[in-house]
Design brief:
Largest sheet: 8 strands, mixed
Order of helices and strands: HHHHHEHEHEHEHHEHEEHEEEEHEE
Strand content: 25-35%
Number of helices: 13
Number of strands: 13
Amino acid sequence: MDERKPSLTLKEISPYLLAGFGDRPETEKLKIILELQQGFTADRGKLQRYFTRADMVAAYAYFYLPSYLPKIEFLLQQLSPQMRTQLAQTKLLDFACGPGTLALGISREIPGIKQLYFYDHSSLMLEQAIQLKPLYPSKLKLYASSHWAEIQKQLADSPVTVLLGHAINEMNLDDILKKLAGINVQAWIVIEPGAKEFFPAYLKLREYGLRQQFKVHYPCLQNSSCPKDPQKDWCHQLIIPQLDPELKRLSQLVGINRNYLPMMGLVMAKIAVAYTEKTIARFLRIHKETKFSFMLEICWPKGDKNSVLIFEVNKKSLTKILRKQLQNSNNGYLIEIKITNQLSPELIRGELMQIYKID
């Protein structure tokens, strides 16, 4: 997996940053990023004031956008060809877009997208998002506005895919749904922080989608209720990104670990999911490793409901390639399994046949 190229390098994004941020000395960049990071950790209630400064908005795009691109790329790589084709046939709305991280990721991952709309309260964030246009496919049309009425008019009755990137982390979910009530939403692509406190809002959006006849395409394998108890646990993924070496170095200077990126991904659409006849499950994490086996936590569509189980795999049954993939893969991949024994209602034993979407 180390052969993957970084999604975006600091050198590539630098020419398109506001306030000439890309040309500033590293010491000055570092000072502004540290000031911004303090706003994220110390007093989020005052965070929006930072985005009235062009240098802060540029610092956010410079540091966070290339850091988070692997999340959207990972999520899109889990989708079926049918789903990816539908996305290309809709207008994309990046709601509360910031510098357009989700929009940039999806436009580079799925060819054929024609129209993209940015909506954000911050005019500087919108300006930064548009200034990054050279990084997008050349034929893609971009439109941006901080006025919701203008966005509604542009979208009219067109089929729309809504992108939410850390939006329900920053905004009230009910307010988001109220604004989107008049939009012909055909799909949702959502990435939220991988922390437990955001899981209730994530579940609320999932339940809203099911009531509106959406089908869950990721992470769930069927549309029944989530088996995770939000009081005790939460569904999330842990991505192992391949980042620009300069971004890694900058992250170390800032004091942020970018070796792993936690996230909660959700994809819902009006089209049905094409299920396979194979026995598949969602790999959640390695629960435990013993001398002889891996104990995998999986989400498995057992009967008419989703169930979280422990799946025991004997190490001797794994090929060297499969074992390496398992130890170095992102949590959240689809896996094919062969069940040989049901040891208890929560514990099954068998063989790991394949890990899908290893790139």
